[in-house]
Amino acid sequence: MQVIYADVLVVINIYITYALLALTAVFSHVKTGRGRMLIASVLSGLYSLIIIVPDISDGIIGTTKLFFSLLLLRTAFGKLSRKQNIRLCLIFFGVNFAFAGIMLALWLFLSPAGMYYNSTIVYFSIDTVTLLILTVVCYAVLSLIHRIVSSRTPSDTVYECRIYAAGRSYLCRCFLDTGNSLKDCYTGSSVVIVSREIFKEAIGENPFEGELKMRLLPHSTVSQSGVLYAFTSDKIEIRGLTKRGTAENITVALTEEKIRGGHFDGILPWDIFESTTDEREKTYAFSY
């Protein structure tokens, strides 16, 4: 009979959950604070005590775990759009399934002493060094997978953007497109193209009656021309691996089309990092 120590169970799951949340942040490119992830990890550690509750049906376990996972992500990453939440959930569960698969394989083929696996909760009665090595290996394997997948899009073209407008902020994942030279014909500002879904709550049914001051922006491509709903942002915070900064008074145009198959929320113009002295258009303050 396996003896489970509650304090070890909680500490182990706090440690592992923090690693899983860190991996989720890496795969999703959503920035968050260590404090938020630590609080979420502590909650997960407390939830892991469910392993010692006898005679719980699989249905109850599955339902409570789903709702708890949503609470965990909200605690760790804060409030996001519906599309971002769905994407974050899929990534989080994918990371968890990969980790659980590694643990299950270890349990089935090696049957290590002091390991107990039940209801997707893992309990280890092993020394700290072994646990550290095991977690580092899992983290390294999943990080390698992330590098292989993300190699299709150069890392220096992927940016996290937080758009401020009408007293709110909106987080989106964008890529820098050297072919995007769209300009606002009214202000001369560069244009950031973002999925309309990001601003769904602020727009409502009629874009001209929502919180954002919309206007129609003419645009044209090689194959078609038309108009987009657009507004002027208060500022946009841009963060990438090699560059970061703040751009003010940038035009944001909305699109209903999926951006690169839905993998991105927006497109940055090629000249977004160029500074200007014309205060009527925009000003930049970038740090490197």
Which features does this protein show?
elongated, 12 strands, Cathepsin D, subunit A, domain 1, 39% helix, single chain, disordered C terminus, alpha+beta, 288 residues, ten-stranded mixed beta sheet
Give a structural overview.
The chain is an alpha+beta fold. The chain folds into two domains: 6-150; 155-287, Cathepsin D, subunit A, domain 1 (Beta Barrel), CATH 2.40.70. Helix content is 39%, strand content 24%. The chain has six helices and twelve strands. The termini are far apart. Residues 275-288 have low confidence and may be disordered.
List the helices and strands and how they pair.
Blueprint: H1 6-28, H2 34-47, H3 58-77, H4 82-109, E1 115-118, E2 121-124, H5 128-150, E3 158-165, E4 168-177, E5 191-195, H6 200-203, E6 215-220, E7 225-232, E8 235-239, E9 244-248, E10 251-255, E11 266-269, E12 284-287
Parallel strand pairs: 4-11, 5-10
Antiparallel strand pairs: 1-2, 3-4, 3-8, 5-11, 6-7, 7-10, 8-9, 9-12
Helix pairs in contact: 1-2, 1-4, 1-5, 2-3
